[in-house]
Design a protein that fits this description.
The structure is a single chain. By secondary structure, the chain is an all-alpha fold. It has one domain. 72% of the residues lie in helices and 0% in strands. The chain has three helices and no strands. Helix 1 packs across helix 2, helix 1 packs across helix 3 and helix 2 crosses helix 3. It is globular and about 50 Å long.
Length: 90
């Protein structure tokens, strides 16, 4: 998959993951990073657990779904590590 495809899928998936998990997006750069990293994680998970080699292979529905699942897992993993943050008292 070309770099342009990774960027487009990353932006789409990052935005969708931000809506599903948080209720809004993470900004342009955040959506891109979460989407691309989620695509890599989702592709690895699909390959390892489902035997789907080359699951993220362009701008199509399968790639978007696999990358979305990977992005959601990534966001939940980071939230688990970070824990709950206490509100700042002023």
């Amino acid at each position: 998959m070309g770099i342009l495809s990774w960027i487009v899928v990353g932006l789409i998936v990052g935005f969708l993951a931000g809506i599903v998990i948080r209720g809004r997006g993470y900004g342009l750069a955040g959506n891109l990073i979460i989407g691309v990293a989620g695509g890599l994680l989702g592709g690895w998970l699909a390959s390892y657990f489902l035997g789907l080699n080359d699951a993220v292979n362009g701008i199509n529905l399968t790639s978007i779904i696999v990358a979305l699942v990977g992005s959601i897992v990534l966001i939940l993993f980071f939230r688990l590590i970070a824990g709950r943050r206490k509100p700042k008292v002023e």
